[in-house]
Amino acid sequence: MQSLFTGNKRENPEPIKADIQGQIPQWLHGTLIRNGPGMHKIGDTVYNHWFDGMSLLHSFTFENGEVFYRSKYLQSDTYKSNIEANRIVVSEFGTMAYPDPCKNIFSKSFSYLTHIIPDFTDNCLINIIKYGENFFASSEVNYIRRIDPRSLETLEKVDYRKYVAFNLATSHPHYDGNGNTYNMGTSIAEKGKTKYLFVKIPNTKSDDKKNSCFENCEILYSIPCHSLLNPSYYHSFGMTENYIIFIEQPFKLDVLKMAAAYFKGVNWASCLTWCPNDKTYIHIIDRKTKKALPTKFYTDALVVYHHTNAYEEDNHVVFDIIAYEDNSLYERFYLENMTSPDSIFEARGKSCSLPFCKRFAIPVEHDKNTDLGANIVRLRDTMAYALKEKDEHVYCKPEVLFEGIELPRINYDYNGRKYRYIYASRVQWQPVPTKIIKCDIQTRSCLEWMEEHCWPAEPVFVKTPEAEDEDDGVILSSIISTDARKLSFLLILDAKTFKELGRASVSADLHLDLHGIFIPEEELSTKQYIEHNSAFGPRCCADL
After folding, report:
1. Domain coordinates in residue numbering, the chain
2. Of all residues in the chain, what percent carry a pLDDT higher than 90?
3. Can you tell me the distance from the alpha carbon of 168 to that of 184, in angstroms, rounded to the nearest whole number?
4. CA angle 51-55-58, nearest 5°?
5. CA–CA separation, 321 vs 408, rounded Å?
6. Which of 161-170, 220-229, 455-464 has the lowest mean pLDDT?
7. Are 175 and 123 in contact (CB under 8 A)?
8. pTM of the model
9. Are 167 and 212 in contact (CB under 8 A)?
10. Which residue, among 449, 458, 466, 456, has the nearest Cα to 501 in the 3D structure?
């Protein structure tokens, strides 16, 4: 398994035609773009953490039953600086880089201390976000990079801070039916205050001024952080038609420690502090009034990276998350732990907690005369409860839906609506998934796909053109094969039956990735379409 995580992957900037086994649905037209780390060694230097590797974009394009694969390293400023120096010279979250010994290390160190928040890397390796009609590689800092979704060419660098005071931001935004994008970020020590900001970036047409969608960015609401210099870490949030759900968890960033990290010789990851004795606060923000519900909802200490979905029912907000009992997951992905996880974790006396899919039910309103200690949840189809306490506090206890799943995806048409199916990766004690799973919330049953020596990426749901049922569609997942006799491939499953429809095998160095997006053909511009297809040969105007 060590070969999965070490070494550098070769890029394939020119499209490769995949070998098809089975059938690719003829209706499936578009491009699946995935993002994740592909380079962990530069010269004689090696990153400490798997999440630190250089972003390698790769895509699978579907055209009339055929599939074409390509991959390119994101040409970030970080990537260019590292390659030019032939060593790691830009710090990542788990790896602190230092200048050449011949240079004045002290002047560099003190320059870091002149800012509370240092200048972060633009190695945007986590996800692909759509803003307006453009697509951006993203991570969790203030920089994103626009990309051409056809050629995977890296375009301009965008700094959120020019438009909104984001020092940190999520890579998991939400979208409405009009193509507007909603995201959240943390504004640290801005005018003496640290806040969580929620923003709306309008769907701006491509013939408008470049990046004008950001210029029209609207701050919808803000939540003050409980501590000026210890904001909560978060990776995603939930959204329904009328509410935003934000979990302020006791997994916190020590801002002062981060400011001094370079000088003290510690990485930024060590500036995250887990506070198991603290509460987890649940903020429910009304999108119409732009105010949080006055009741103070909270639960036990937990760590959550991914929200699955949220919806409203009978004056309740119901939301599902993937939750951990502690912060051991990040520790698991240090390369030394991934290459020999069992022995190292035993030596450190640590274990990695399993993820649980948990459902919370939050009453939007409740009778003020309800007795203390009473359950104020009135939904019949959930075991989640909420106990009224004094001073407008409510303790929330979730219902466990499923155990050992991560990287949840849904039919996004059901985002913010009551739904039935979750598509996810099955996670047990391995550092990466070995199975893809379909979870039926209604029956609590599951369907699984697995194959020996195969390591599946996050499953992505794509609906059929005439979909009537929630699971009318296909599941796409990039599969890494460690069997020397087999190529890695893109898997296509029938989302309803979970039976394999086909696979597209490619003679390329596929890498483990993190997240991605499927872009239907109609969402790509004509200019990009022509440039893309010129790589496969000329086409007449009637084909466009």
Report:
1. 2-543
2. 76
3. 9
4. 120
5. 9
6. 220-229
7. no
8. 0.92
9. no
10. 449
Fold assignment, 2-543: Methylamine Dehydrogenase; Chain H (2.130.10)
Q: How confident is the model at residue 350 (pLDDT cuts 50, 70, 90)?
A: low
Q: How sure is the predictor about 264, in pLDDT bands with cuts at 50, 70 and 90?
A: confident
CA distance 171 to 462: 20
Cα–Cα nearest to 247, from 314, 188, 172: 172
Cβ neighbours around 367 below 10 Å, total: 10
The answer to whether 137 touches 144, Cβ cutoff 8 Å, is yes
Paired sense of beta strands 393-397 and 385-388, if any: antiparallel
CB 421 within 8 A of CB 435: no
Tokens of 38: 């592909």
Tokens encoding 244: 């935003």
Q: What is the mean pLDDT of the chain?
A: 89
Please, are residues 328 and 350 in contact by the beta-carbon 8 Å criterion? yes
Map residue 105 onto helix, strand or coil: helix
- Residues 6 or more apart in contact with residue 107 via CB below 8 angstroms: none
* CA–CA separation, 272 and 297 (whole Å): 24
Q: Give 307's DSSP letter.
A: E
> Is the pLDDT confidence value at 255 over 60?
yes
Under 8 Å CB-to-CB from 342, ≥6 apart: which residues? none
